[in-house]
Prior knowledge:
Elements: E1 2-5, H1 16-24, E2 29-32, H2 44-57, E3 60-65, H3 79-98, E4 103-106, H4 118-139, E5 142-146, H5 154-162, E6 168-173, H6 174-177, H7 183-189, E7 194-198, H8 223-232, E8 238-240, H9 252-274
Amino acid sequence: MLSMTSNYRTGTGCPAPALRRIADAGFTHVHWGHQWHTDFLYDPAEIRQIGRWLKDYGLALLNLHGSHGQEKCWWSPRDSERRAGVALVRNRLHMAARLGADVVIIHTPGWEPEAEGHARQWAQLHRSLDALAPIARGYGVRLAIENMPNDDFRGIDRLLAAYPPEFLGLCYDSGHGNMGRDGLDALARWTGRLIAVHLHDNAGVDDADGDRHQLPFDGTVDWPRLARLLAAAGLHTVNLESIIRHYADEDDDRFLRRARDRALGVAGLLADAAHPDFAFLP
């Protein structure tokens, strides 16, 4: 399965043109990236319309990027904002279930015990996770914690140890894992909890622009090693979270065709890692 993020150009506004272009480029699945960083709550009518678009364009929803919100933040020290953040995540769990996906990807704060307010922030995060666990089970949807740029996995280690795999897993972001620390070493510890990926590239510590979200093979991510770890985890869907911003000379259709070609390249590495005696056939 080849999947592309819906917000390859923008994460707000009507998603229909992006969905059509993603389908026309040959992708079979879409990762829902719209409104990933806003307080937007999807109404049932909007969810039904998105479902119709997906059906019309022949796309399936792979998974959905939840939002920690701006004011509706589910680890906010202010409890009214935390509760609103839980409602925001619940909205995305409902949306994922209605559209046929079983994973919602979420951000969490970094583990920084020396930072002011750290203890309160993490206590609030645990309150929210405890409240969301039965809701997620009811929807049949799991949450996946995403590693962030320069993440040392201390927070992720604690959360994955504290909550069961039936509720909480890992989303490995290849670009974030390439920035400043060796995320692949951390991924190797948690392949058994890997349930989603954000695949994109950058130049790592040498990249002045940091988190570029480039196409695979345009940066320094160790794709063969990553493919071996993904294969070991039994994860064979290639989900790109590349964006067009750093490809100013390309229109959407050309960018998406190249994205599909790069996704096929990653799929080939996955197939070689999983079944080294057989050639990958797209």
